[in-house]
Specification:
Helix content: 25-40%
Number of strands: 20
CATH topology of the largest domain: Dihydrodipicolinate Reductase, domain 2
Structural class: alpha/beta
Radius of gyration: 21 Å
Number of helices: 13
Length: 393
């Protein structure tokens, strides 16, 4: 098939294969149903070794593996919504079969896998979109305009704050959840590498940090109150990069249970911008009365289709996420410190979840102080949990 033939075929309803039909795969299936009604896509198969989803759409085939799906249906695009440690091998297989890829976040489990996948995508000449869907928010362009116009004075710091609660059932939902490694494979699950990963991706995009060469250091402070887990659930991250504002993010899955939309902020000398990125609401505080602005967002699947048919630039290309992978590497470089002080385990059974006392207060202080939980004075914090990662030059 020539490039022109492939281009023409993508102008028809695009044939989509989905790896992982349950979990977040259901979100993709609902979106593909919407796009199918518009005549843009056709879901031709779902690959899932666990079996077909109970609500699989009529006429959509189920396959035990992506290999089988690719051989039978030859999709134009493959969406991968599977466990983190399977992303790299499945994406490479899709590229070898001639399919563009939509890869759920985090893209892969290590920088080494990232480098291999970038090379595989380049060799194939195919495209890869990473599912940091909040990057499609129209609020990001407005933030850039406001900062450039001096709306908050001199910008000084980009922060991220996420305080969620996750119970035992959440971590028991799959063998890889809460794990750093599984059966000899790096998994890299954690609060900043899965549940609240968008906080990091948003902050990096606002800072316009898109290249590994920009990063000078990544500092981390890692804890876990879910003692049965390997992964961090309460984490502070600072990214320093050349020609960019510093980034300071504090995240936890050990909040009191009144989950609020996580926020990425730009703090300036005369005000601040606060983006609740899950709902695309931006609060502009110029040091007086705050203004609330609501925005839409571009769908990343539609953007990938537009890229393949009309050469529209990708919103979240794989090649732009080396800085995010640097953060993932920094987090995986050291194990989280177990937390027992000031931790109250609430509920029982599958509903049991640890709550760190005043964690929202300390997370906000850690982020906005710019130096982490220990420096902010959190009584349960320990300098042993702190480390610094430098990119290999």
């Amino acid at each position: 098939m020539t490039d022109d033939d492939h281009h023409d075929r993508l102008k028809q309803p695009v044939r989509i294969g989905l790896a992982g039909g349950s979990g977040f795969g259901r979100v993709h299936r609902a979106n593909l149903a919407r796009l199918g009604e518009q005549g843009r896509t056709r879901l031709v198969g779902v690959a899932d070794p666990a079996g077909p989803p109970d609500d699989l759409e009529p006429g959509v085939g189920h396959f035990a593996s992506l290999t089988d799906l690719l051989a039978a249906e030859h999709p134009d695009v493959v969406i991968i919504a599977t466990p983190i440690h399977t992303h790299a091998v499945l994406a490479e297989e899709a590229f070898r079969a001639g399919a563009h890829v939509y890869l759920e976040k985090p893209p892969v489990a290590s920088m080494a896998e990232y480098d291999r996948l970038v090379a595989a995508a380049a060799e194939s000449g195919l495209s890869c979109q990473v599912g940091f869907q909040a990057l499609g928010s129209h609020a990001l362009a407005r933030i850039a305009e406001l900062v450039a116009d001096g709306a908050i004075g001199e910008p000084r710091l980009i922060t991220g704050l996420g305080v969620w609660s996750r119970d035992r059932a959440y971590f028991n939902r799959s063998p890889w959840s809460g794990r750093r490694r599984l059966d000899g494979h790096q998994v890299s699950d954690g609060v900043a590498t899965n549940a609240l990963a968008h906080s990091i991706a948003q902050a990096l995009r606002i800072a316009d940090v898109r290249s590994l060469d920009q990063i000078t250091a990544v500092r981390t402070e890692l804890y876990k109150a879910n003692l049965d887990n390997e992964s961090d659930d309460t984490t502070w991250i600072r990214v320093d990069a050349e020609d960019a504002l510093p980034i300071s993010v504090a995240l936890t899955l050990c909040g009191p249970g009144n989950d609020q939309p996580p926020t990425v902020s730009v703090i300036g000398s005369q005000g601040r911008l606060d983006l609740q990125y899950t709902i695309d609401v931006l609060t502009v505080d110029r040091g007086g009365r705050p203004e609330r602005l609501e925005f839409g967002r571009d769908d990343l699947t539609e953007n990938l289709l537009d890229h393949c048919t009309e050469q529209t630039p990708l919103i979240s290309p794989l090649t732009g996420h080396a800085p995010y992978m640097a953060v993932l590497e920094a987090i995986q470089a050291g194990d989280p410190l177990p937390l027992t002080d000031d931790v109250d385990v609430q509920e029982t059974g599958d509903a049991a979840h640890p709550v760190i006392k005043n964690v929202e207060h300390w997370a906000r202080r850690a982020a906005e102080h710019g130096e982490g939980f220990y420096a902010a004075g959190a009584p349960w914090a320990d300098p042993v949990a702190r480390s610094t990662w430098y990119p290999h030059r």
